[in-house]
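Much of our argument rests on the idea that a fold can be written as discrete symbols. In the encoding step, the backbone of a single protein was reduced to a row of integers, each denoting a local shape. This step matters because it turns folding into a mapping between discrete strings. For completeness, the protein is quoted in full, as a sequence line and a line of structure tokens:
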Amino acid sequence: MGGAFGRRPASTASGRRQGATSTDAYAVCFGVDASPHFLAAVGLAESIRIEFVVTDDEGAFQMVCGDLPPRGEAARL
């Protein structure tokens, strides 16, 4: 689990990076096994706008997303 506040590469609809960046607070869940702690931390940090979940399992990704606060945007890595 990790996170930061700062600049991140912006992406196009196809997922390719653009030269521009946007500034947001984000969180990264490096494994679905850590999702209970990740979800608790994201729930407490109201400034987080993007949550990255590292998994190759679409079902696991959807499970984590279902428990995220509605204020952010989730992305699977």
Summary: Residues 53 and 73 are 11 Å apart (CA to CA). The chain has two helices and four strands. The chain has one domain: 24-77.
